[in-house]
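hi! just following up on the protien thing from before. the input was this:
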Amino acid sequence: MEIERLYGLYRNSAGVTTDSRAVKKGEIFFALKGPAHDGNRHAAAALEAGALASIVDDHSLSGERIIVVDDVLEAMSALAACHRKRLQMPVIGITGTNGKTTTKELLTAVLSRRGRVHSTPGNFNNHIGVPLTLLSAPDDAAFLVVEMGANHMGEIAALCKVSMPTHGIITSIGTAHIEGFGSMENIRKAKSELYQSLRESNGTAIYNDDNPVLCELVSGMTNGVPYSAPGGHTLSAAPAGDDLMLLKVKAVIDGKEHYFETGLFGSYNIDNVRAAMAAGLLFGVPEDEIIDAISSYRPSNNRSQVTETGRNTVIRDAYNANPSSMENAIASFAALKADKKMVILGDMLELGSESAHGHAAVIRQLRNIGDIRAVLVGPLFREAAADFPATLFGTSEAAAEWLKSERPEGYTILVKGSRGIMLEKVFPLL
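and the predicted 3d structure came back as:
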C-alpha cells in the first residue's frame, strides 16, 4: 500500500496500536514481529476486537481489512514520518547516556506552562517507541518532546529521520551500552547523530557549555544555544548544598537570584535542571513559571525518586545504571547526613569489555567511603567484590528473600542497578 493511502486510513482511524490484546475500536493494528512473538498471528483477533485494519507482512494472510506490506516496522516508521511532516510545532529531540528521561519529564513540565505538550511516554524511546510517540501526537500540541535511545551506531540517525527534530539536547556522553557500540568513540559518534540531523535541517542544538565534549561536537553549528545564554538571557544554576536529600538549586537568571528545591535526589541532576531551564527560557516561558514547574515535578519512574516507606527512606534509582551514573549516585548518597546508610546495587549490564573495570571502580568507591552497608546483586558484582565486606546475592529474588528476614529499619537506602537486574522486586521489602 502506498504510504499516502495508508496515511489517509490513519487520519480516519482512532490511532494505532501494536498490542492485539489492547485494541480499541477504530485503531489500526501493526503486527510487529519480535524475538518471542509474531504479531501476524494476531491480525484476525485484532480485527475481531474492533481494529479498523491490521497491517501485516505475512503474505499468506488476506482479507478485507488486512493490509499486506513488505515490512510492518518500516511501514509504521514511514507512516510516522509522513505524519511528522504535517506537524507544525517545535519538535525537541533528547538523547544522551544519562538523564534522558528526567530531562524529558522536566522539560515537559516547563513547556506545559506555554501550551499542550506531547512527549514520549515513559522511556519508550526506541525504533518502536518513537514512531508510536509521533503517531499519537495531536495536531493541536504546542510542543513535541521525543526521547531517543540507542545501543548501536546509526540508531539515533534513523530515529531523527522519523522524528525530524527542530531542536535537540544531548544530556551527556558516557559509558553505557558499550557492548553494542564497541568503543567510547563510537558512543560519542552515535549520540552526535542528533547534532548531525540538526545541522542538515538547520535546527537548533541546546547544549551544556560546561561539557567540553558537547562543546566540541556542537562547534560549527549555525544554531547552537548554550545553557548559559538561551534566547537572549543569561542563566547559571548550581546545587545549593551537596549534603541534602533533595536537590536544592541556586539559579541566576539575568542577574536575579532564585533558590528552590526540586523533587529529585542527587546533585548530579543539576544538568537536567539546567537543560529544562534553558529550553524554557528559549521558548519564552517566564522564569517564575519555569521554577515553579521544576519545583512541582515529582518523579514516579524509579529515577532519582525518594520514598518514605514507614521503616526507611528509600532512593529509587533502579531503572538503569552505568559507571558514570553509578558513581554520581553513590557520591551524592555518601554526602548525605544520615545515621544509617545502605546501598543495594545491581549489576551494570551491556558494558562489554569495560564490565570488570566498571564494577571494580564501584567497589573502590565504596571502600573509600567506608561507612555504608553494601548489598550487591548479580554475578558481576559478586566477582568484583570477592575481597570486599558486602552482602552478595546472585539475583534480586535472593536479595528479596534475605530482606524478608533481615527487615532493615531506620536506614537511608540507595537502590540502583540496570533494569535487567529487576531491583524493583526489593522495594516492597524496604
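The chain has three domains: 3-69, 87-296, 305-429.
The mean pLDDT is 93.
cheers
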